[in-house]
Amino acid sequence: MSEIVKKLEQHQSATPSRWREAAQARKANKEWLRYSQKIAMRMLDKMEEQDITQKQLAERMGCSQQYVSKILKGCENLSLETLSKIESALNITVMQTEFA
Fold this sequence. Notes:
This protein is mainly alpha-helical. It contains six helices and no strands. The protein has one domain (20-90): 434 Repressor (Amino-terminal Domain).
């Protein structure tokens, strides 16, 4: 038994896992993450419909392709400015602004 434990310890990562912290962060932020995921899916659908790449979308939005990639993962807390750029670049409505 101790031989198995030794082998497992040899293959153990020196860096501790942060899965618990990541899970807690997802739970704490689940409301806005849900919106971020919906926006990402809408963007992907529109990009496919318009046959444009991440690079082309980045050019339209005035940002990097890496940032577009982060947005499309659905885990980015988007600013109003970014939402406006997404709407303009893809000709979609992301936010409904109905004030009474």
